[in-house]
Design a protein that fits this description.
Chain lengths: ~150, ~280
């Protein structure tokens, strides 16, 4: 059995959340270990929340919103995209694989699209399973512990 | 103290163009920041070593009565940080005048500075000046290990936040127990160091005060340089210039959407004699 891959999905309620709910109603095969947090808009997802999710045990975080130009909140998804790019650069700088952060705009509003996008993302994180990037910088580490793991 | 700056300061104090001057003076050991108000004291001003004056200038001006004007004798990085504070609306426009002392090559190398003198400004990527020893923190394949070893030393003194000239929020998320767990040492690097770096990313002028002030010697400047480099690469943005931050949308950051024209405002604005 595959070890659990905790995935947190922030979904804007205007597009991807509709896809997610429909995927549930249609009983599509969805990965068992993701949690979805409905947001009013992807622009409300601050990078701080994503950092906290990673520190609290998530293996991957997905942010899904409407397509550019289709945002209900004055194009807030563009600002979100700029902020998340910066977050991705910060993760990259300290050696966490940016592939653990998945950002999608307007690709998950149909049930099958949502299921597909989510499985693809989980496959991407599963490929990183051997990487030791995330546990290294996760919360509550004690000094010196597991230092011998260093290659 | 260069004669040019000294003359300028005397003239400004004479004409009451500024209320006070913030600069360095000789202390018991080394240099200390000091506020000068009289023309006679100006001789004691020193160019000094590099000293983080940005946050001190901010605190000083906020403690002074409204309408006060302050001159600061500082390095280029602090003058850029003060420009950023001004852009954030921390004090009225032109309340602070910066008299810039350019850094020499040795100091610029020490800070990995890409902008040590006021004139050699724009168009340089902040990452370009990084020394090889710091570059390895951003480019080596197992840099997560390097960062782990550095961040394990953190004693959560909040020195990096307190000394940062552009870290000016009245409420700090680093004190929010749901992000940074109280009494947990060392703090989790993601919601502590990365969160702090991201919060100041678009205002960070790369002065290195956080790194110089860190008692654990965590190379924080590398992290900040990486973020500034990203913003420079993506949007051509350099903190400390007049350009608006790419992370904030204002009138100067068009979204590409057509807005309706509120010419008449259904009579609401017209009644006040405004046309827009």
């Amino acid at each position: 059995m595959n070890p659990s891959l905790k995935t947190l999905v922030f979904a804007c309620r205007w597009c991807p959340l509709l896809g997610a709910e429909r995927a549930g109603r249609e009983r599509l095969a969805l990965p068992p270990d993701f949690r979805l947090i409905p947001m009013e808009c992807a622009g409300a997802v601050s990078p701080d929340l994503i950092l906290r999710a990673f520190a609290d045990g998530a293996h991957g975080v997905a942010v899904m919103g409407c397509h550019f130009g289709g945002c209900r909140h004055n194009g807030a998804n563009r600002s979100a995209h700029t902020r998340l790019q910066l977050l991705s650069a910060a993760l990259e700088a300290v050696g966490i694989r940016p592939a653990r952060l998945f950002v999608s705009w307007g690709t998950a509003h149909e049930a099958r699209q949502f299921a597909g996008v989510l499985s693809d993302f989980q496959a991407r994180i599963r490929a990183l399973r051997k990487e030791k990037d995330l546990p290294l910088l996760r919360g509550n580490f004690t000094p010196g512990h597991d230092r011998e793991m260093r290659p | 103290m260069s004669a040019l700056h000294a003359d300028k300061i005397r003239a400004m104090l004479d004409e009451n163009a500024v209320t006070a001057v913030l600069g360095l003076a000789d202390g018991v050991e080394g240099h200390i920041p000091r506020i000068f108000t009289g023309v006679a004291e100006v001789d004691k001003l020193k160019d000094g070593p590099k000293y983080p004056l940005g946050k001190i200038a901010w605190r000083t001006l906020r403690a002074m009565p409204p309408g006060s004007r302050l001159a600061v004798v500082c390095r280029t990085c602090d003058s850029r940080a003060i420009r950023e504070q001004e852009k954030m609306g921390q004090f009225p426009q032109r309340a602070v005048t910066c008299l810039v002392v350019p850094c020499d090559t040795e100091q610029a190398l020490k800070c990995s500075c890409s902008w040590p003198a006021p004139e050699q400004a724009q168009g340089k990527n902040p990452v370009a000046g990084l020394a090889a020893g710091i570059r390895v923190l951003l480019e080596s394949a197992d840099r997560a290990w390097l960062w782990r070893e550095h961040m394990q030393r953190c004693i959560k003194c909040y020195g990096c936040r307190n000394v940062c000239p552009v870290c000016v929020c009245p409420e700090c998320r680093l004190e929010d127990p749901s992000f940074v767990r109280p009494a947990a040492l060392p703090p989790s690097p993601l919601p502590y160091h990365l969160l702090r770096a991201l919060h100041v990313a678009d205002h960070c002028v790369g002065c290195g005060a956080c790194q110089d002030g860190c008692p654990a010697g965590i190379p924080l400047l590398a992290l900040h340089k990486a973020l500034s480099g990203h913003l420079f690469g993506e949007a051509g943005y350099l903190a400390g210039t007049d350009a608006p931050s790419p992370l904030r949308r204002g009138p100067s950051h068009p979204t590409g959407e057509d807005r309706p024209e509120w010419k008449n405002c259904y009579g609401i604005c017209a009644s006040k004699g405004e046309n827009s």
